[in-house]
Amino acid sequence: MNSAKPKSHGEAQAANVNAAIGHTIPALPSQRDTFEARLAQTWGDGLRRWQEGDCRVCGRNIGLEYIAVGVGDASTVDVLVTNCAQCEEVVSAHYHPGRDLTREDQSMHPRWDKDCPPAYQRAILADAAAPTHCDAAASERVRSWRPQQGRGLVLTGPSGIGKTHAIWRLARDLEDDGRNPIVISSIELFRVLARSAKELESAKWLLRCGVLVIDDLGKERLSPGACATLHELIDERVSYDRPTIITTRYNGPAFVARFAEPELGEDIRGRIAQACDHVHFKAREQREAA
């Protein structure tokens, strides 16, 4: 006899969205933003899976449109367009909550003030220490990092234990030092590359910026085109001693499984391990048991 508790409607929707497009949304509908609510509306009934050529947000067919993305001085990869123009606004609002692109820079941390989400700003400015749910020891290791001979950082560990808090606090410290790190979600990274493909120079900042921070790599399973783009981006930055910082909830085989092409995923994992120092964030129960 199966005694498992039936899933609520919201849990079922979240599971169906994850199965359809590999994206995680809150189980409680009241906690979803407009983007997540639209995903639930499109994919939450579990009747279909996303296919190439459909918008990942609204599900309508947009055709197989590929954009050639420059990843080096003379090389490009084809990146599949995965959302329609009508959904662009809700996608941007989801990945840049609270961003005011028209605000004048009025502090010693203009990039951080503009780019850091308000919730993280409040937490970082209110207390010099990491919040109680965070792995404070790991967070301090991240904060002490500084660029040296091109070596970067990779932060691993489950969600909700301070990885993103740590990189935003580090970003503010780096700006204090006169550096201007770029912090971008892994999903937004590929969207920026796709939008910039027709003006290759506008995408070069991803290759040339002093410190590039890619947050939550693996949140969505990466397509072959995205895998190739990431590989070329990391390889280019390593070649020119430009450090990259990556956060991910996945490690080892679980990380490789987030790539559509396992061999390329293994190559990317190896390249990151070779070029980055590793900081693992432990869950509270692991810290208390230590």
Helix % is 40-55%
> What is the radius of gyration?
19 Å
Largest sheet descriptor? 5 strands, parallel
Name the CATH homologous superfamily of the domain at 108-289.
Answer: P-loop containing nucleotide triphosphate hydrolases
Outline the low-pLDDT stretches.
100-106
Quick one: CATH class of the domain at 108-289?
Alpha Beta
As for the CATH topology of the domain at 108-289, it is Rossmann fold
CATH structural architecture of the domain at 108-289: 3-Layer(aba) Sandwich
Could you tell me the number of beta strands?
7
Tertiary shape: globular
What's the mean pLDDT score? 82
* Number of helices in the DSSP assignment: 14
Could you describe the 3D structure shown?
It is a single chain. With 290 residues, the chain is of the alpha/beta class. The protein has a domain at 108-289: Rossmann fold (3-Layer(aba) Sandwich), CATH 3.40.50. It has 14 helices and seven strands. The strands form two sheets. A five-stranded parallel beta sheet has the order 4-5-6-3-7, sandwiched between helices. A two-stranded antiparallel sheet has the order 1-2. β5, α11 and β6 form a beta-alpha-beta unit. Residues 100-106 have low confidence and may be disordered.
Which helices and strands appear, and what pairs or packs with what?
Layout: H1 9-21, H2 34-43, E1 66-70, E2 76-80, H3 88-95, H4 110-115, H5 118-126, H6 136-143, E3 152-156, H7 163-176, E4 182-185, H8 186-196, H9 200-203, H10 205-208, E5 212-215, H11 224-239, E6 244-248, H12 253-256, H13 262-275, E7 276-280, H14 284-289
Parallel strand pairs: 3-6, 3-7, 4-5, 5-6
Antiparallel strand pairs: 1-2
